[in-house]
Amino acid sequence: MSSRRSRGSGSTEDEINNLILKLQALLPHSGSRNRRVQASKVLQETCNHIRRLTRDADDLSERLSQLLASNDINSLDIESIKSILGQ
């Protein structure tokens, strides 16, 4: 029974390790992409990256709202809006 449990958990552990490696590959500037790192470190870096992305999205949304709220939108502002939306 315990050998069956070991095999089952080993498979799950392999799946988790593969997912951690895939997640690590998605992180920008991951200097340790080609070597194994602790799963907790990859998860922490992922959380930090998601926080940065959320903050960046909020900043872009604020900039876009300010541009749209201004009464004097010119062609340069329109290009800025297009650039923001294209990101």
Automatic annotation (TrEMBL):
GO terms for molecular function: protein dimerization activity. Transmembrane segments: none annotated. Keywords: Coiled coil, Growth regulation, Nucleus, Transcription, Transcription regulation. Its main location: nucleus. Residues 43-70 form a coiled coil. InterPro entries: HLH_DNA-bd_sf, ILI2-like, PRE. It holds the Pfam family bHLH_ILI. It comes from the Eukaryota. The keyword Transit peptide does not apply. One of its GO terms (cellular component) is nucleus. It is found in: Nucleus. GO terms for biological process: regulation of DNA-templated transcription; regulation of growth. This is Transcription factor ILI6. The lineage of its organism: Eukaryota, Viridiplantae, Streptophyta, Embryophyta, Tracheophyta. The gene is LOC113741814.
